[in-house]
Amino acid sequence: MATSDSIVLYDFFASNCAWRVRNVLHWKGIPYETRSVNLLAGEQHKPAFLKINPYGAVPVLYIDNRFITQSVAICEYLDETRPEKRVFPEDPYEKAQVRRIVEIINSYLVPLQNPTTAKKHSNDPEEQLAWSMDFFTKGFTVVEKLLAETSGRYSVGDDVTFADMALVPQVWRAKRLKPDFSRFPNIMRVYKELLQLEAFGKAHAANHKDCPEDIRGDVC
Ligand SMILES: O=C(O)/C=C/C(=O)CC(=O)CC(=O)O
């Protein structure tokens, strides 16, 4: 039973959006509990969950005695209420650099890969992947160009930012498409750096309690 000072993440191991929030919670060292919402089994459409998020999507974070939906809103709230190890830079131009990388992933790529969207296109998983490939290629080509300008050790300079929180889950998901990752050297360099960080390892889908046995622990 959640208490008023509990932090509870409504989560699915493979959800890109929920994974961003896990990254930020672990990065900031904020303890939380998990409630699983199996997106592949359609649990996001059940009435009890729709009361929490009428859109029927994860993540939802219960925090400070309230529910917050939408990963970017949640992570901004976390940064503003718990500013240690900020993930959104205070400098407005640097923050814009972070947000434009995030928006390509959040607005152009992830919605087209959601289970509900993919099923509208086709019920054939192979066809769903083929359809995603065009959007993925355009999105990653643009993110690669942005990182060529902005990246240092991480996506924007040498500090970990929310752009990194969004990048890792999307690279992992893109592996299903088996793209030629050598076309994206900056993305892959930053991705490998990030996987060295303890917080990113803890938040990784492959280390999630709900991860299927066949891919469990495969952090790569
Ligand atoms: O497609 C759905 O029904 C639900 C989607 C989500 O809950 C989250 C989502 O956007 C997928 C993701 O984060 O990877």
From TrEMBL:
Listed SUPFAM superfamilies: GST C-terminal domain-like, Thioredoxin-like
Span of domain GST N-terminal: 5-86
Gene Ontology MF annotations: glutathione transferase activity; maleylacetoacetate isomerase activity
Domain spans labelled GST C-terminal: 91-213
CC terms in the record's Gene Ontology section: cytoplasm
Coiled-coil zones: none
One Pfam family cited in the UniProt record for this chain: GST_N_3
Pathway: Amino-acid degradation; L-phenylalanine degradation; acetoacetate and fumarate from L-phenylalanine: step 5/6
GO BP field: glutathione metabolic process; L-phenylalanine catabolic process; L-tyrosine catabolic process
Classification via PROSITE patterns: GLUTAREDOXIN_2 (PS51354), GST_CTER (PS50405), GST_NTER (PS50404)
Keywords per UniProt: Isomerase, Phenylalanine catabolism, Tyrosine catabolism
Top class in the EC scheme: isomerase
Reactions performed catalytically: 4-maleylacetoacetate = 4-fumarylacetoacetate
Top-rank taxon, per record: Eukaryota
Family matches, as CDD domains: GST_N_Zeta
EC number: 5.2.1.2
Cofactor entry: glutathione
InterPro entries on file: Glutathione-S-Trfase_C-like (IPR010987), Glutathione-S-Trfase_C_sf (IPR036282), Glutathione_S-Trfase (IPR040079), Glutathione_S-Trfase_N (IPR004045), GST_C (IPR004046), GST_Zeta (IPR005955), GST_Zeta_N (IPR034333), Thioredoxin-like_sf (IPR036249)
The family this protein is said to belong to: Belongs to the GST superfamily. Zeta family.
PANTHER family tied to this protein: MALEYLACETOACETATE ISOMERASE
Protein name stated in the entry: maleylacetoacetate isomerase
Organism: Hypsibius exemplaris
